Amino acid sequence: MSGLVESLLRERVDDPRIDTATMSVALVGAISEMLLSWFNGVLHVSRTELVDQGLLLFEALTEHVSAVSTSASFRLRHGS
User: Fold this and answer.
1) How far apart are alpha carbons 49 and 1 in whole angstroms?
2) Euclidean distance between CA atoms 29 and 15, whole angstroms
């Protein structure tokens, strides 16, 4: 699963400081923990809300990584 996530992250990353393998393992681990907590009754949300929260987490990570990557690329190209 983390391999699939990594391939999606690599599409948006242009910053050598960002290790997409590590980020993808962390994201899959977080989603796994959310699922286990929900299954064990710790998270009191509907299945739809759980899926929505997982997608929001993925979107937040990809948007942040993309923004950081874009900023770093700009600085490298312009010597800032």
Assistant:
1) 21
2) 23
